[in-house]
Automatic annotation (TrEMBL):
UniProt-listed PROSITE patterns: HTH_CROC1 (PS50943)
Entry protein name: HTH cro/C1-type domain-containing protein
Lineage: superkingdom: Bacteria
One Pfam match: HTH_33
Domain HTH cro/C1-type: 21-44
């Protein structure tokens, strides 16, 4: 795909400025023709002199350096395979909060739980959100309440609603 469209037109503008300079235009004339400042043209010309037309090409942003090295990221599936109980959690379900704790224990690197979801999706996995229910939950009592008490609590239509 190459550079984003925004970078493409900017790159073409820098190359055009370089061509105009090679054709004998003055920097002020180039700036007026391209709708930029003389300072911008000056910077482009310096880049062009130092690195040729190649130096005027768009360069994608590098972004932040990952906290986990590539080899460490590749070990995340092994962390997941150990199971959540290996890191002090009850039950086998993994979620982003748990994975953040496991990554801290395993690699000594702190990640925000939201970013852990990104890391796992990047590796082709997905995390689950555990369904937290009380251990003393009584399914029969809940069903009885839903069928006998809930209907009485629901808002009934008023007598005037049909008019």
């Amino acid at each position: 795909m190459g550079a984003p469209k925004k970078a493409d037109w900017r790159e073409e503008r820098r190359k055009r400025a370089w061509e105009l300079k090679q054709a004998g235009w003055k920097q002020k004339e180039i700036a007026e023709a391209l709708g930029v400042t003389e300072g911008a043209v000056s910077q482009w010309m310096k880049r062009g002199r130092e690195g040729g037309e190649e130096a005027l090409k768009a360069k994608p942003a590098n972004g932040a350096t990952p906290r986990l090295r590539a080899d460490q990221q590749a070990r995340i599936p092994h962390v997941l395979a150990k199971g959540a109980p290996a890191y002090g959690f009850c039950g086998e379900v993994w979620n982003s909060r748990r994975l953040a704790v496991a990554i801290k224990q395993e690699f000594g690197v702190s990640y925000h739980p939201d970013h852990c979801g990104y890391l796992v999706r990047k590796l082709g996995y997905s995390l689950q959100k555990p369904v937290e229910r009380a251990t003393q939950r009584n399914e029969q009592a809940i069903e009885y309440w839903k069928t006998h008490h809930w209907p009485m609590l629901k808002k009934k239509p008023s007598r005037n609603s049909g008019r």
